[in-house]
Amino acid sequence: MAVKAYDLSGRIAFVTGAASGIGRACAVLLAQAGATVHAADRDAQGLHETATLIKAQGGATHIHHLDVTDRVQVRQAVASCERLDVMAAVAGIMHSSPVLETRDEDLDRVLAVNFKGVLYACQEAARLMLARGTGGSIVTMASGAVDTGGPGLLCYGAAKAAVVQLTKTLATEVGRHGIRVNAVAPGWIRTPMTDRPDTGAQAHTEALMSRMSPLRRVGEPEDVAHAVLHLASDASAFTTGQILRPNGGVAMPW
């Protein structure tokens, strides 16, 4: 019974940011669980690689080459689904600058992708779920940055905090229609977004992050994907408006 609760056979999932990292891991795992996955990203090559991985494992997928900051593109892609059971709004970018050196264009760019891109995905997913009347699960991607301050992370942390508020607000508005809305807030995850050009700097950063975690390691994309699968599936049928934190224990808010 417990395993069956994670079965997504016959369901349709939409994943943004699916070309690499956490988004790719989510798309692949949701397909492994039985869902037909609509994978979306602006990285066409990465998208095709994700689709190849899914198909090689016997999964079903459709790809959408789009920019999540373009509301029309997101609307058209989501509308192409016959119905929607799961939305995983994963697409995001990283930016680091001290508060006193942060420019308008830095903030605007990060908010456009990390908040507006998530907002558009949530809006279109909720509209389709409401129109079909079948309920569903919307999973947003927050960050451990919402739980603690970090030097240089004003833009990123502010956008992810806005995602948390979006998640909680939308959960209160659509819950009576059987639509659940939850967020995942990862800690340090080894992805292309967290790669450092210098291998020595990368090793130093990962060693530091590992020491901060009670588990003494950094996370992998699959660690986050399993959290997304849980929230997407019937295993979390009584969970909404919550933040799931696969962060290795670096933050333990009450």
From TrEMBL:
Into which EC class is this enzyme placed? Answer: oxidoreductase
Tell me a Gene Ontology molecular-function term this record carries.
3-oxoacyl-[acyl-carrier-protein] reductase (NADPH) activity
Q: Does the keyword 4Fe-4S apply?
A: no
Q: Spell out the Gene3D superfamilies in the cross-references.
A: NAD(P)-binding Rossmann-like Domain
* Protein EC: 1.1.1.100
This protein's UniProt keywords: Oxidoreductase
Q: Write down the Pfam families for this protein, in alphabetical order.
A: adh_short_C2 (PF13561)
List the PROSITE patterns: ADH_SHORT
Q: Which family does it belong to?
A: Belongs to the short-chain dehydrogenases/reductases (SDR) family.
Protein name, entry field: 3-oxoacyl-[acyl-carrier protein] reductase
Q: Which organism is it from?
A: Streptomyces achromogenes
